[in-house]
């Protein structure tokens, strides 16, 4: 920032604790962080700065971000469209404080846990970036397996290997499982329809594992997926047509990656005419006329195995990350209220 802006801003000193003084919701206000650097820095007017005495600033920031303190801060929020919390309110917070040496030890433990979480998160991002780059090469033929290098990719219309396969069933009289598709290539999800009478259609359609399924209203936004085994038997409306594969030409394990590419989603947009905003509907005829360039079915299997292997590794890392976050949150709560004490 320039000198004039600095003069109008608040100077931050090492070991200060910074609070978010405003936010869109009660949960956003009062989030804080300890400033532990020696670099000269300044904060804007919405940041509340506290200079602490005889308290470990890192311990204090963990404590003030805990669920116990969040409940206190929620009571201090003021406003509607934008919620504010002021220093006068923050001064009223009650913070459990063990002796300073124990504060430092707790801060050290929680910081180490956060570092572990960050390392796993970075590994996940690396895996995702690696898969994206590898997928771009494998799906376009820029990178080939030696045994397939002499066999060219061939262009073919989707209709040559995808067959519309509706499986109509009467709308159930009791609760049932419905399937939806997330946009941006994020796959399917299941939900329970408790009251079928709220569904206007008398006929629904059953999905099966390895179907290609598309939401014709949001296909242009990447709402297309391959049905998972856990989705089998779920029901959809007529707006979610399903297709089965001719495995001699294309396999769903491979095509699951094709439909995630920017190029394919772009093509879906071209065959989804419509008006302004998000009101666009896929032409099922034009969809089957889209042309893709694909290798032989055998090479598709090998490409799918490589990419699916990376996905599996990423999934395991994501589970590990979730466990670390859950365990870390539980440990933090117990350390900060004294349920677990540390020896110094």
Automatic annotation (TrEMBL):
<dbReference type="GO" id="GO:0009307">
    <property type="term" value="P:DNA restriction-modification system"/>
</dbReference>
<comment type="similarity">
    <text>Belongs to the type-I restriction system S methylase family.</text>
</comment>
<feature type="domain" description="Type I restriction modification DNA specificity">
    <location>
        <begin position="215"/>
        <end position="320"/>
    </location>
</feature>
<protein>
    <recommendedName>
        <fullName>Type I restriction modification DNA specificity domain-containing protein</fullName>
    </recommendedName>
</protein>
<keyword id="KW-0680">Restriction system</keyword>
<dbReference type="Pfam" id="PF01420">
    <property type="entry name" value="Methylase_S"/>
</dbReference>
<dbReference type="GO" id="GO:0003677">
    <property type="term" value="F:DNA binding"/>
</dbReference>
<feature type="domain" description="Type I restriction modification DNA specificity">
    <location>
        <begin position="7"/>
        <end position="119"/>
    </location>
</feature>
<dbReference type="InterPro" id="IPR044946">
    <property type="entry name" value="Restrct_endonuc_typeI_TRD_sf"/>
</dbReference>
<keyword id="KW-0238">DNA-binding</keyword>
<dbReference type="InterPro" id="IPR052021">
    <property type="entry name" value="Type-I_RS_S_subunit"/>
</dbReference>
<dbReference type="InterPro" id="IPR000055">
    <property type="entry name" value="Restrct_endonuc_typeI_TRD"/>
</dbReference>
